[in-house]
Amino acid sequence: MNDILIGIDAGTSVMKSVAFDLGGRQLAMASIPNSYEAVGRTGAVQDMARTWADAARTLAELGGKIDNLANRVAAIAVTAQGDGNWRIDKAGDPVGKAWLWLDARASEVVERLQADSGNVERFRQTGTGLAACQQGSQLRWILENAPETLDGVVNTFHCKDWLYFKLTGKVATDPSEACFTFGDFRTRQYSEDVIDFLDLQKVRTLLPEIVDGATQHHALSEDAARLTGLKAGTPVVLGYVDVVCTSIGAGLYDKSTDTGCSIIGSTGMHMRFAESADDVWLNKEQTGYTMCLPIPGAYAQMQSNMAATLNIDWIINVAGGLLKGMGVEKSKSELLGHVDRWLAEASDQPILFHPYISEAGERGPFVDASARASFVGLSIGHGFGDLVKAVFDGLAFSARDCYAQMGPMPERVRLTGGAARSRALRSILGGALGASIQTTEREEAGAAGAAMIAAVSLGIYPDMETCVGDWVSPYMKPAESPDPTLTRRFDEAFPAYRQTRQALRPVWHEMASEHAERTAK
User: Fold this and answer.
1) N or C, which end of the chain has less CB nearby within 10 Å?
2) Tens digit of pLDDT for each residue in 113-140?
3) DSSP string spanning 440-466?
């Protein structure tokens, strides 16, 4: 009996394969830590062969956790980290290492393209702002600066496309990633106008066929079957990009209420559901993403912070370093356990923190690779607890900044990611957005979302709305209402948060120029 669906979720730092029964109950998971390498100051790459080997290994390890797994799998679905470019030759082997979404080498290309008058039409078609992390921007940079690295390349993939190719031998990409980089979100097809604007016609043949996993699937190859211990011919579904799958698994698709969805992990993704192309809100700043959902005519609009909990990691590391300097060793978990006390110690004197701690700058709700974190408003009366509180507030301000670029604030936000477990952060985020916060008992929302696409693709469910009724709704926890006092505080402070981040942009650029000059000497 084929009673199991497997969702593969290939993140930047962890590779996971998760088994579910056909009704959405999680049965087992196998995971392997992943890693990437820095290239200079702004590059970030990942080994393609290792990524595939890790995916195959997690599938094989599931077989040791579930009896007779190979004969019980109805389908395998794959999702993964987005953006970047993963290149193969005609033999199907990797050409170099994959460029990741963290790679900011194309920042200068993006600044040039943003200033081009043709970007207005490109944004109208894709519904997505330009960013250095995108495959289009990266390919343009490669053509201008290192064209020899494309010698022998016959296809450029995203991460999940690479894994799908290794699972099935099929060269394909999905509508979500294809359209927000190279296409028209309304037609869910490539746009030759967009490809022309990016000046990528000379590499047009490298772009894979668009395959919608919600309606199509292919068979597990003999080679992949030998590596994974699963049966050749098992249906394999190409999922949408990880943030889309996570949004589906976490409850974004809910037509009964005005719902947003935020993923607060190392990065922050903030999403609103658009029932149709006419419901898509295209902001005048030309930022954010519009991603096709595995639902006819429906979309997720997104604004993405480059760094979210990375800011918390930073302030925790500062605390650990200070204590270590005094001969006191504390683990990260011990320091995180002290956060509530630091927050309680904070004063009522406000500090603003702009959470742009990533070396790659910021990509939502504005795009600027030179953006850097800052505290504004420090005085002698502030202590370490005030800094911790400002960092948590900064994450909430940045989330509000993102939602404001997609229309009115949502009434409810479904929250997922590692930080969803923090009661303090949930309260602060609810206050900043003036929205109720709702979390889910489901921990692997991305893998679940991919498996849900497979469940619809195979006809196990007639449509995604019915699937959500079994896979998502029963796992939602009660909503937590926003604190009116916190909401008033954030309403009063938000204009100053926006004004200061806008005023600091020339400073970031000057600092980046000075750093570049020093590095060049």
Assistant:
1) C
2) 999 999 999 999 999 999 888 999 999 9
3) BS-S-HHHHHHHHHHHHHTTSSSSHHH
CB-side neighbour CA atoms (13 Å) of 3: 7
Q: What is the DSSP string of 106-171?
A: THHHHHHHHTSTTHHHHHHHH-----TTSHHHHHHHHHHH-GGGGTT--EEE-HHHHHHHHHH---
pLDDT > 70: what percent of the chain? 99
Residues 244 and 318 in one domain: no
- The amino acid present at 516, given as its one-letter code, is A
Q: Which helix (H) or strand (E) holds 70?
A: helix 69-72
Claim to verify: residue 319 and residue 424 sit in the same structural domain: yes
The pLDDT value recorded for residue 520 is: 66
Identify which of 144, 46, 83, 105 has the alpha carbon closest to the alpha carbon of residue 369: 105
Cβ density class 456-481: b for 16+ within 10 Å, e for less:
bbbebbeebeebbebbbeebbeebbe
CA 32 to chain centre: 19
Read off the CATH number of the domain in which 420 is found.
3.30.420.40
What is the distance in angstroms between the CA of the first residue and the CA of the last residue of the chain?
67
Q: How many domains does the chain have?
A: 2
Q: Is 462 in the same domain as 313?
A: no
Instruction: Work out the pLDDT band at 292, boundaries 50, 70, 90.
Output: very high
Is 88 a domain residue?
Answer: no
Residue 164: Cβ within 10 Å count: 31
Select the more confidently predicted residue: 338 or 298: 298
Query: How far apart are alpha carbons 98 and 278 in whole angstroms?
Result: 36
Tokens of 440: 């889910």
Beta carbons within 10 angstroms of residue 28's beta carbon: 17
Closest-CA residue to 391 (of 320, 334, 324, 317): 317
238 HSE (CA, 13 A, CB side)? 32
Mean pLDDT, rounded, of the chain: 92
Retrieve residue 316's tokens. Answer: 């925790």
Is residue 232 within 8 A of residue 222, CB to CB? The reply is: yes
Report the pLDDT value the prediction gives residue 175, as an integer from 0 to 100: 96
229 and 168, same structural domain? Answer: yes
* Amino acid at residue number 467: C
| Structure confidence at residue 390 (pLDDT) | 94
**Alpha-carbon distance 155 to 239, whole Å?**
19
Range of the domain at 72: 1-36+47-81+158-172+212-251+440-482
Rounded-to-integer distance, Cα 183 and Cα 186, Å: 9
Q: Cα–chain-centroid distance for residue 121?
A: 25
